[in-house]
Amino acid sequence: LDLIKKDPDFKNLRKIVTQDMLSGQSKTRKERAEGRYSYSMLRNALSAEGLDLSRYGFYSFKMGEKQRIREMLADEAKSYFGDRKITYFGLEGPTFGSYFALAQVMRINVKGSLVPERKRRNYNVIQKISKSRSVNSLLNENSLHSLEIVLRSAEESLQRTDKKFDLEFLDWLGHLSPSGIRELELAYAHLKGGGMIVVTLNMSSVSENRYKKQTGLGISQDGYMRQWAEVKGMKIQDVDYVGGDKKRTPMKVYIMKK
């Protein structure tokens, strides 16, 4: 354990194996490595904006300008849907930052909503969070208790579900990949009339090059999104923001309305 904690050769491993996995008894370390945290630990990470689990190795919703974007999205949804109760599909992750922002201003049909998670450790944390009374007390009767949470990719989740959604948030963070393009098509197929799809993309030159290399398309990511929305008959708007903390990353969020 001391080698992992201090040796420079284990620098990359320490990004995955966090400090809380390296302390305490072996049973405790195993549970944390599997994402099995106590309710008291979750309460300590809880605020009105979501859960900050960065000390446990998860992405923090406080990094960069992302929280501003979540709040903007919630206001946009409120303006678009009004007091209507909506069904939601979202790539939340253990912070539940987007859901928290929506829950402050929207009425959510939780049972008709769906949150996929492809990583087992994240899934275990999300399941625990959904049953936390402290968390659910902050969600204005939009309790996570009856939310369908599945251990699958977004693509597989949309392939398997019969549900239709008013609001879909594909919070990818990375570049537009071939699997992302498939997810976007599936999201449209599961979108209700008058619904909204929101997508976040990394717009750095590295991500742009990866997108072109993987998809073989000559059009830019931005060009693809605008062309896609036009073909689907959707109105599109976008907002630039900066993601990350130490490494500042140019990001763009697309809001498309059916």
Task: Please characterize this protein's 3D structure.
It is a single chain. The chain starts with a helix and ends with a strand. The chain has helices at residues 2-6, 11-14, 26-33, 39-44, 66-81, 97-105, 120-130, 133-136, 154-160, 178-189, 205-215, 221-232, and strands at 46-47, 50-51, 85-86, 88-90, 107-108, 114-116, 148-150, 165-171, 191-202, 235-243, 249-257. The longest helix has 16 residues, at 66-81. With 258 residues, the chain is an alpha/beta fold. The model has no long low-confidence stretch (mean pLDDT 88). It has a five-stranded mixed β-sheet with strand order 4-8-9-11-10, sandwiched between helices. Strands 1-2 form a two-stranded antiparallel ribbon. A two-stranded parallel sheet has the order 3-5.
Q: What's the end-to-end separation, in Å?
A: 53 Å
Helix content: 40-55%
Question: How much of the polypeptide forms β-strand, as a percent range?
Answer: 15-25%
Please give the radius of gyration in angstroms.
19 Å
Q: Please work out how many helical segments DSSP would assign.
A: 12
Question: What is the chain-wise order of helices and strands?
Answer: HHHHEEHEEHEEHHEHEHEHHEE
Regions with pLDDT < 50 over 5+ consecutive residues?
A: none
Derived from helix and strand composition plus strand pairing, the structural class reads alpha/beta
Q: Number of DSSP strands?
A: 11
Instruction: Note the overall shape.
Output: globular
Strand order of the largest sheet: 4-8-9-11-10
What profile does the largest beta sheet have? Answer: 5 strands, mixed
